[in-house]
């Protein structure tokens, strides 16, 4: 047993300046181990009396920690001894004028006593008597004028209030076990016992408030009340005990901030405590209503102080000393405290407030409005929930002062509060202060409230916004009005779609706003107004679609102006451009020249501010201000024009797309010749975007070559050889991604063109995958087999391609490329699933005939392995991935493979009359013998890896898929599964080295799910599995597991 001196020396190492981190960690570990011993109680209690305050605190903290963890298990004699000694230390603190024991050490001892009381409720009376004795002694000593022991009185009151404060906190923190496990069985329980002493606590607070004239004692008393409020102190209780009035006086006149804050916190806690009537669903009694009315009157008496907190620049008026509500250093804290109380009372009495039950309650609403208009948005945001609650009552239920006039005033206030500061004109969110951002955009912010106001005001809401936009010369007010319009746009669009006079008026205002918006002088004043303006245009795209061509064009031209303005404005503008183009595509498709003008405008914007900042000259505006045309924004704009062109007649559509895309094609050719990978990737991405969104009915074409995408590919394909032969380009992942994404997007629309070059394209894709490990190369093969697998003679080529892809995937895994880009694996298995559906022979091919993918140690892709052998080895290697998407793709492939091999997919397809799908599923089932042989060679490794994956922590969806795959394997290959389980748990325990005990238990709990609904053979397999798992889990868990599987009694008895 270590001595107290030895323990103190180790504590010194923990606090020693300059001590090595390893030494400090070892010292802490030693102290933790020592504290776990029963005899450490005495040592820690002795060390609390140490002269070194660090040692004092460490020992007191360890006592508290031991009480938290070990108190239930201590013998009664130990409990009594420790409790008595800790209580004695607390008493000595009160008597000791030398203040040997520090305050923070005393707090830890009080926490320990409180936790002991919570866990041993029968000592509560002793605890409360101790607090009351100290409180009475402290107050008596304070009232004796000239008493030399005033410091002792302060210590007594500090300890008394500390004991009262920490007890409810420890009760809330404690989660006790069932009383059956307590040595001191307490049928009443700590919660009920604490409610029994509530009157004593309230009396203690009353004594402190009435008998002491010291503000810090009042603050401590209010902190006690705040702590006990949840136990049962409500507003009627405060009124009955005559506590409400002195607390309200603190709100009106107290100049001590801590007292005011604690009074507010205590009152808020009491207000939020439901009255007995509310708990039982009865109407509130006259006494309860009277107590709340008294509280409201007290708040109204503080109206002058509240008004002072709302002055943005309080004037001292020659005063030498400012009040706390006027002092800029404390003004916001005072406002926050008062606002929290006002809102809590208004929300608690919301039923009476909305009907105007008393004039005072209506006056309370005026105070809420004052706080909503407060110059600190941290204060204003606290009031927003109240206005949401009012909206839960219909207008007919509300007092007339809470109808439209009130919401017009609220709208004016919120528009002012939503304004961003002068130096945030760029449009970048990071330039907007956090409090303004939170007020505008957080979940509790003003956006939702604008929707509420729109429901109340209807057309008048838009009319008010239009009035601000027309009349203001302040860009901040202009931007705020636009923000309010976009915030409520969803509701405006909904209401405007109705057929009634109110909706017709609303439509008229919105259409007027859209007609005038682009011509208003402040629209493009800066990035903030421009970004807000184009967002409004995008939000009302459906309105524009019903308006005349000139209005649509003007708004789109304004959006094009915003595209190269700045990154955030450009992205917002591109989104708006896309939405308007989609909504108005049928109207715009009739005016090809206008659309070509828009396409030219996009190109001009790009030429002015290209995507690559490096293309700007040094010192240019774009270079210094980072004004660029982001690629994603450009692609959205391209999508918008492409969707319009798809609705045009064929020739007009092709001409429009030529105007849109030809400048980029020219840049692409130049960039390839110049080996400019950045521009090549960007222009290929733009072309891919266009190919994705050209939507033309192929049957309407005279020739497949007439398709606009065919024309694009005809020009691009000659570049393929140049790109793949260029060392700088062929190794650039972005270039390769963009190139093969474009090809994949074009397979359907440019089928005739690509078919002529299919072998070259796909062979190049596999080669490029081996160079760059780009997932786009893999997905290109998947798209190709989906489109071209039905072509005569295609199967042989796809078999060869899939074999090469599989070998390349082995190398990719062995060289660690899947770690840097996990999407490679998920793309590979998604592509493999496509092959399984459209060309299953490629997966079940007889042999690769090569050892290209063989590893140095021969663990994967042995020479002569079939493609399926290699594939199963890849599956085993990837099934235990930590990546969710990888797991999902692996699990989906595994379950699909088992389903098709078993014929269930064919039966399901036949049942719904899909003959083609049924035939494809039957074509997979014919490969069952090949799969059986390959699984015999590789299946045990696969099953073992699935077991380990199931034991690991992973999201539910991949887990359930893997479990289903495991169950399918168990149904069809029970001996294989049992053998693999035996390998994992018995013959090869090292395979479990990465599993914790919790992992093993988690693995066992998956068994019932895996066996559920898949037949008795699966259950038999997993019964054997469970037998081998038995030693990894508890008897109760195992018995429950066996019962869920309906195991025979003799198996259950294994437990």
UniProtKB/TrEMBL annotation:
Q: What is the organism of origin for this protein?
A: Hondaea fermentalgiana
Q: Tell me where it mainly resides.
A: nucleus
Query: What do the Gene Ontology cellular component annotations say?
Result: cytoplasm; nucleus
What family does this belong to?
A: Belongs to the importin beta family.
Where located? Nucleus
Keywords, A to Z, come to: Nucleus, Transport
Entry-linked Gene3D superfamilies: Leucine-rich Repeat Variant
- Where, if anywhere, are coiled coils annotated? none
Q: Does the keyword Hydrolase apply?
A: no
Presence of the UniProt keyword Repressor in the record? no
What biological processes does GO assign it? protein import into nucleus
Name of this protein: Importin-13
């Amino acid at each position: 047993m270590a001595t107290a001196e030895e323990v103190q020396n180790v504590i010194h190492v923990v606090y020693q300046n300059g001590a090595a981190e390893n030494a400090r960690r070892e010292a802490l570990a030693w102290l933790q181990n020592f504290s776990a011993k029963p005899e450490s109680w005495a040592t820690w209690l002795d060390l609390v009396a140490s002269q070194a305050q660090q040692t004092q605190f460490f020992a007191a903290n360890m006592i508290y920690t031991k009480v938290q963890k070990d108190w239930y298990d201590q013998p009664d004699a130990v409990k009594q001894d420790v409790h008595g000694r800790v209580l004695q230390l607390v008493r000595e603190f009160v008597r000791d004028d030398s203040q040997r024991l520090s305050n923070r050490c005393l707090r830890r001892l009080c926490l320990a006593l409180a936790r002991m009381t919570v866990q041993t409720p029968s000592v509560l009376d002793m605890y409360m008597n101790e607090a009351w004795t100290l409180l009475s002694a402290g107050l008596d000593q304070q009232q004796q004028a000239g008493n030399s022991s005033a410091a002792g009185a302060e210590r007594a009151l500090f300890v008394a209030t500390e004991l009262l404060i920490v007890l409810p906190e420890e009760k809330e923190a404690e989660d006790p076990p069932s009383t059956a496990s307590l040595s001191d069985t307490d049928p009443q329980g700590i919660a009920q016992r604490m409610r029994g002493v509530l009157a004593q606590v309230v009396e203690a607070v009353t004594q402190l408030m009435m008998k002491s004239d010291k503000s810090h004692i009042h603050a401590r008393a209010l902190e006690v009340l705040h702590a006990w409020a949840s136990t049962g102190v409500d507003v009627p209780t405060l009124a009955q005990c005559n506590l409400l009035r002195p607390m309200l006086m603190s709100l009106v006149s107290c100049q001590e901030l801590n007292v005011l804050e604690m009074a507010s916190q205590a009152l808020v806690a009491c207000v939020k405590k439901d009255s007995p009537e509310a708990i039982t669903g009865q109407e509130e009694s006259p006494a309860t209503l009277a107590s709340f009315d008294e509280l409201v009157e007290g708040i109204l008496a503080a109206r002058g102080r509240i008004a002072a907190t709302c002055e943005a620049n309080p004037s001292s008026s020659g005063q030498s000393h400012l009040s706390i509500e006027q002092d800029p250093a404390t003004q916001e804290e005072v406002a926050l405290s008062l606002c929290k109380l006002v809102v809590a009372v208004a929300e608690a009495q919301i039923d009476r407030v909305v009907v105007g039950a008393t004039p005072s309650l209506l006056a309370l609403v005026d105070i809420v409005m004052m706080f909503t208009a407060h110059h600190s948005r941290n204060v204003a945001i606290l009031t927003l929930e109240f206005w949401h609650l009012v909206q839960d009552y219909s207008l007919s239920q509300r007092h007339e002062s809470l109808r439209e006039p009130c919401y017009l005033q609220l709208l004016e206030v919120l528009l002012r509060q939503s304004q961003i500061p002068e130096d945030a004109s760029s449009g970048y969110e990071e330039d907007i202060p956090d409090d303004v951002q939170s007020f505008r955009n957080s979940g509790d912010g003003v956006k939702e409230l604008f929707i509420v106001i729109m429901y109340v005001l209807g057309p008048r809401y838009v009319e008010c916004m239009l009035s601000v936009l027309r009349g203001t010369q302040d860009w901040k007010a202009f931007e705020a009005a636009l923000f309010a319009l976009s915030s409520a746009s969803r509701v405006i669009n909904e209401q405007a779609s109705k057929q009634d006079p109110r909706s017709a008026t609303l439509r008229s205002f919105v259409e007027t706003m859209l007609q005038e918006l682009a011509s208003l002088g402040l629209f493009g004043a800066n990035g903030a107004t421009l970004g807000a303006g184009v967002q409004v245009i995008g939000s009302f795209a459906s309105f524009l679609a019903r308006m005349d061509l000139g209005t649509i064009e003007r708004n789109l031209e304004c959006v094009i102006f915003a595209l190269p303005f700045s990154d955030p404005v450009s992205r917002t503008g591109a989104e708006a451009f896309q939405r308007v183009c989609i909504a108005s595509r049928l109207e715009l498709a009739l005016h090809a020249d206008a659309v070509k003008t828009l396409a030219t405008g996009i190109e001009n914007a790009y030429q002015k501010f290209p995507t690559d900042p490096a293309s700007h000259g040094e010192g240019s505006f774009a270079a210094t201000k980072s004004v660029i045309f982001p690629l994603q924004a450009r692609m959205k704009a391209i999508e918008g024009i492409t969707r319009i062109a798809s609705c045009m007649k064929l020739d007009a559509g092709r001409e429009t797309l030529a105007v849109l895309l030809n400048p980029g094609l020219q840049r692409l050719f130049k960039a390839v010749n110049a080996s400019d990978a950045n521009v090549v990737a960007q222009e290929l991405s733009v072309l891919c975007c266009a190919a994705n969104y050209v939507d033309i009915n192929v049957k309407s074409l005279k020739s497949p070559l007439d398709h606009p995408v065919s024309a694009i590919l005809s020009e691009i394909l000659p570049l393929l050889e140049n790109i793949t032969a260029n060392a700088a380009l062929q190794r650039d992942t972005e270039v390769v991604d963009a190139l093969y994404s474009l090809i994949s997007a074009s397979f359907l629309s440019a089928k005739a063109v690509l078919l002529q070059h299919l072998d070259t394209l796909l062979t190049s894709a596999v080669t490029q995958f081996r160079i760059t490990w780009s997932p786009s190369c893999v997905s290109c093969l998947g798209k190709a087999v989906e489109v071209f697998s039905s072509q005569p003679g295609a199967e042989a080529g796809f078999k060869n391609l899939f074999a090469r892809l599989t070998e390349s995937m082995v190398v990719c895994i062995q060289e660690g490329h899947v770690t840097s880009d996990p999407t490679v694996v998920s793309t590979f298995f998604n592509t493999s699933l496509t092959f399984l559906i459209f060309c299953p022979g490629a997966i079940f091919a007889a042999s690769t005939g090569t050892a290209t993918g063989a590893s140095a140690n021969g663990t994967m892709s042995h020479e002569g392995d079939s493609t399926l052998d290699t594939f199963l080895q890849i599956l085993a290697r990837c099934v235990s991935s930590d990546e969710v998407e990888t797991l999902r793709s692996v699990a989906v492939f595994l379950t699909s493979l088992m389903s098709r091999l078993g014929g269930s997919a064919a039966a399901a397809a036949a049942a719904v009359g899909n003959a083609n799908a049924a035939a494809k599923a039957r074509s997979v089932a014919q490969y069952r013998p090949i799969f059986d042989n390959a699984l015999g060679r590789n299946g045990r490794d696969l099953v073992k890896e699935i077991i380990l994956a199931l034991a690991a922590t992973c999201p539910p969806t991949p887990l359930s898929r893997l479990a289903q795959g495991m169950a399918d394997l168990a149904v069809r290959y029970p001996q294989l599964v049992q053998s693999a389980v035996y390998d994992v748990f018995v013959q090869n325990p090292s395979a479990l080295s990465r599993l914790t005990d919790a992992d093993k238990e988690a693995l066992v709990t998956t068994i019932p799910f895996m066996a559920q609904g898949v037949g008795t053979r699966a259950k038999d397999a997993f019964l054997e599995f469970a037998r081998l798992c038995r030693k990894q889990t508890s008897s109760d868990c195992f018995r429950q597991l066996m019962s869920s599987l309906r195991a025979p009694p003799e198996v259950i008895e294994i437990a």
